[in-house]
């Protein structure tokens, strides 16, 4: 299996040329290096934070796979899903860590397989949001 990765959030931020847009307090509070991923998600979902920039994925990864599933269901990402549905956790497959089930805004459910569903031809359509 070939190891693939998606563009990093820092690379997306470099493309913006405007890192001054974030206030010092939000940089300190939401700095991923200081927090666990679940804490970052919790902080962003409580604050109703909007993304600062967007990039398109170049290569498939586990994170791109989950973003693909959220975007198929009509959400930007896990942060927006948690804000809209008022949930603390998203149901995932324990074997792979991929999203298992999502409820759309019209209250129908999307059920996903354990295996990869985002084909190579769809990877470039996945949007990666930076907060």
Automatic annotation (TrEMBL):
Residues 1-44 are annotated as: Disordered. It comes from the Eukaryota. Pfam families: Meiosis_expr. One of its GO terms (cellular component) is nucleus. Essential for spermiogenesis. Belongs to the MEIG1 family. This is Meiosis/spermiosis associated 1. It comes from Gallus gallus. The gene is MEIG1.
């Amino acid at each position: 299996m070939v190891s693939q990765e998606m563009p990093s959030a820092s690379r997306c931020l470099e493309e913006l040329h405007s890192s001054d847009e974030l206030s010092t307090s939000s940089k300190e509070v939401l700095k991923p290096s200081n927090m666990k991923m679940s804490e970052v998600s919790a902080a962003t979902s409580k604050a109703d934070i909007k993304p600062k920039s967007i990039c398109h994925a170049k290569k498939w990864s586990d994170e791109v796979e989950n973003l693909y599933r959220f975007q198929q269901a009509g959400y930007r990402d896990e942060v927006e899903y948690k804000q809209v549905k008022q949930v603390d956790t998203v149901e995932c497959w324990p074997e792979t860590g991929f999203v298992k089930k999502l409820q759309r805004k019209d209250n129908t459910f999307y059920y996903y397989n354990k295996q990869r569903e985002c084909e190579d031809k769809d990877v470039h359509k996945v949007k990666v949001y930076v907060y």
